[in-house]
């Protein structure tokens, strides 16, 4: 019983701290798909982020109850804590499963979408940087093409240049001239975009997995303390 109380108090404090980290992961996923909505039209892809935000809000009262019960047991509080832990378990299992599934699904889709946008791009040498989806991505991520700048040469009628959005920021005079390859971004946009996507989704997946384990420990600790309550006081369950 003393060990269960100490563990429950510790886990309650952990739940407070992890609420902010969980909210960060949720906001990261939501903003990522919002900023690149022209690549992913499906609005449900941000669902793991919204589930993570919901989880972070529920973690706060859960932590308060866990600390309170570790100080003074109350059958009403213990029953409520069990319900909250069960709700958190369901939310985090769903969020982790969706994050893992979307990480695999969107990675394969991303290459075809990027390739399509590159093929649809229409540019000429020495023009001002465009504002279509490809130019926005290339400037924001400092990348060029799907895999590298040679992707533009395969579909280009201008074999001497690439879009100006491929230029590195430090070269303000760059016009996409292939005679100055050193002024172009070396890395392709697919690799950088996949890196951002994988980081956000794996962050949600592993964070939820760790929280599930902690919540199971909290549930076990609460169950040990509930054994010391008379059965008739646990009618709330």
Q: Proportion of β residues?
A: under 5%
Order of helices and strands: HHHHHH
Number-wise, the strands total 0
Fraction of residues in helices? 55-70%
Report the radius of gyration as a whole number of Å.
25 Å
Give the overall form: elongated
| Helical/strand content category | mainly alpha
Largest sheet: none
- Global mean pLDDT: 80
Number of domains: 2
Number of separate helices? 6
Termini distance?
21 Å
- Sequence stretches where pLDDT stays below 50 over 5 or more residues: none
Describe this structure in words.
InterPro entries: Tetraspanin/Peripherin, Tetraspanin_EC2_sf. It is a multi-pass membrane protein. It is a single chain. This protein has 237 residues and is an all-alpha fold. The chain folds into two domains: 1-116 and 197-228; 123-189, no CATH class. Helix content is 66%, strand content 0%. It has six helices and no strands. The protein has helices at 2-35, 47-71, 75-120, 133-141, 150-154, 189-226. The longest helix is centred in the middle third of the chain and has 46 residues, at 75-120. It is elongated, with a radius of gyration of 25 Å. The relative contact order is 0.17.
């Amino acid at each position: 019983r003393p060990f269960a109380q100490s563990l429950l108090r510790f886990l309650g404090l952990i739940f407070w701290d992890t609420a902010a980290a969980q909210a960060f992961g949720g906001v990261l996923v939501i903003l990522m798909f919002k900023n690149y909505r022209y690549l992913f039209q499906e609005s449900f892809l941000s669902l793991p982020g919204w589930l993570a935000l919901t989880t972070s809000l529920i973690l706060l009262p859960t932590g308060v109850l866990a600390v309170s019960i570790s100080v003074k047991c109350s059958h009403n509080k213990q029953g409520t804590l069990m319900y909250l832990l069960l709700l958190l378990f369901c939310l985090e299992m769903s969020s982790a499963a969706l994050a893992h599934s979307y990480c695999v699904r969107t990675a394969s889709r991303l290459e075809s979408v990027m390739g399509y946008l590159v093929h649809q791009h229409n540019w000429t040498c020495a023009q001002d940087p465009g504002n279509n989806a490809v130019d926005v991505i290339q400037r924001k991520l400092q990348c060029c093409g799907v895999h590298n700048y040679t992707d533009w040469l395969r579909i280009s009628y201008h074999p001497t240049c690439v879009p100006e959005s491929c230029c590195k920021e430090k070269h303000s005079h760059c016009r996409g001239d292939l005679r100055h390859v050193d002024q172009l971004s070396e890395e392709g946009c697919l690799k950088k975009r996949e890196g951002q996507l994988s980081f956000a989704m794996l962050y949600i997946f592993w964070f939820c997995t760790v929280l599930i384990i902690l919540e199971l420990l909290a549930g076990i600790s609460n169950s040990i303390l509930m054994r010391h309550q008379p059965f008739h006081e646990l009618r709330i369950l």
